[in-house]
Amino acid sequence: MAMKLSTLVFRTMWKNSRLYGLYFIALIFSSGLYFSFLTLAANPSVVEMNTTSVKAGAAFKAGSVILVVIVFFFVLYANQLFMKRRSKEFGLYQLIGLPKSRIARMLLLENSIMWLAAIAVGVGLGAIFSRFFALLFLKVVDVERVVIIDFSVSALLQTLFVFVILFMIMYLQSLVHMSRTKLIDLFHVSAKAEQRVKRFSWGSMVIGFMGIGLIALGYYLSTQLFNEDIVKTATGLYTAMLTILASTIIGTYLFFRFSVAALLNIQRKARQGHVKIVDIVAISPIMHRMKTNALSLALITTLTALAIGVLTLSYISYSSAEVRSKESMPFDMGVVNKQHTALDKAFDEAGIGYKKYQFDLIRADVNLTDALGRQLPEVLQENPDTSLYVLKEGQVKKAAPDVTLAEDETAIFGYSTITEFMLPLEEQKTFELSALKQKVKLVSLHDQSLLPSLFSYGMPVMVTSDSLYHELKKHQQEKTSITVFTGYNLVDKKQLAQAQKIYYEVTDGQFKRDDGFDMTLSTQDEEYRALLEMMGIIIFVAAFLGLAFLLTTGSILYFKQMSEAEDEAPQFAMLRKIGFTEQELMRGVRYKQLFNFGFPLLIGICHSFFAIKAGWILFGVGYEKPFMTVLAIYIVLYLLFAFLTMRYYRSIVAKSL
Prior knowledge:
66% of the residues lie in helices and 9% in strands. The protein is α+β, with helices and mostly antiparallel strands. A six-stranded mixed β-barrel has the order 3-4-8-5-7-6.
């Protein structure tokens, strides 16, 4: 009997190979990626960075946990679809006398073979590609290092443990489905699963348009987060964020549950009884299955938006490393107060050519209220008197030759994108120097940084004429611990390594900030590499998790369409018999797949676009290139799944006559 059961298992597996093929590939990818992450996390030559204390192993472990969650939901959802798809098959087994316990054993053997094979292949590929992933990761974080990766037994055992748990949960789900379903219901479970709606009430249409309205509300609020008319306090900001999240998610569900059917129903009625093949093959199935599909489509749309948003923001942060490093250290390196004397001597003795930029520093209280281009909400408002570092024009001209100021004029440097957002100053407006009770004109705003951001907590720097600077110095009330900053740019960048070594021999980079905290100045190159390592870890993990998510969601959509294609086979046969050609039927199928794959992606793109527009400002660089790059990847991969679905439908249509 065991032989007969095994023969039956292999025959059913062969019969359902097309159904399980993509599922098998997804399991291979998931187990391989999980094993690779664990292998990399255990390798010191990969996870220990050069210039930061950040451990990449923690990021890999966190990524592996998120990957398990993604695979968990994918496995349960896919298995649920497969059980419904094979319900008639299980019913036939029971009709010929095979008890449920025997079917359960058959399922156990069948799934065990598939999972063991998938995990074996996945672990094997993970072991092979681990070194490639390690080299790719080190390339992303710009670290040169020899990588030797041994086969990790601990990673293997943890992978087996996690996927055995997932397998047990999946198998338990299958048993519960079989035990709760009566024999007669097994032949109708697919039909029962699709809750078809035959009438569309005015109430449903109203709710549908409410869904569109909620999405529009979320989009509008995301563009008005820091508008005083909308958000006035910190509590109001949090409330607005929660409102955006809730209205967008609920609106997405209502859109798929009611809006789509309502809009298609209006289109159908507008034709006044004239029916096209697209109405039969695409519009009617979409309308009538939307009650069942709404939740899964809304979930896929929301998670797609989340994945695109996180990956884009990670890419933006990675791309901003150079800009951020120049904000942290505007020159190749810099020292404070009298440290420049010893460093000049050491550089001269070593034959290192450099350009020197020296700034005498004072602080002055200013009231910038009159220079603001718009009114700030309370959540962003501070004391009207803001303390800024002040530099004199004569010293700044060497770093910024175009600066020319009259007696009552000032310029602002270090005016980054985030500073512009938080402090929207406007050129040609005046503001008050509190110590002198004097109005001065703001003639220019510059994103170029002159002082390290550690000095001024990220606030901009004010430049005045030399005479006004000396007048402010006479009235300076707050003495600064940093009186001089000296920046150095090397003439020959090939001498950077030697110059950095001398820099740390002469000075440890330590200084005491005005608030009393001891801080350390790093060179611009070290700041860049530290940011690149930190952001590189994030984008590397985010990219692979985004790919895993895309594979699982695309697979779920594909499995769903395979199931619907099987259900619609009799309809295709009938349409072929009354004269419709294969090309005409496929035209309707293309319209349907445009909706099933295009709408979740399109709405997800819209969601992520507004989320990114609200958050990109924090990173200091534009979002267009990162956003378009991520979109291109997602669109190509979604098109691949749509193409596979079209192939499957074509085979069903071809067999229908």
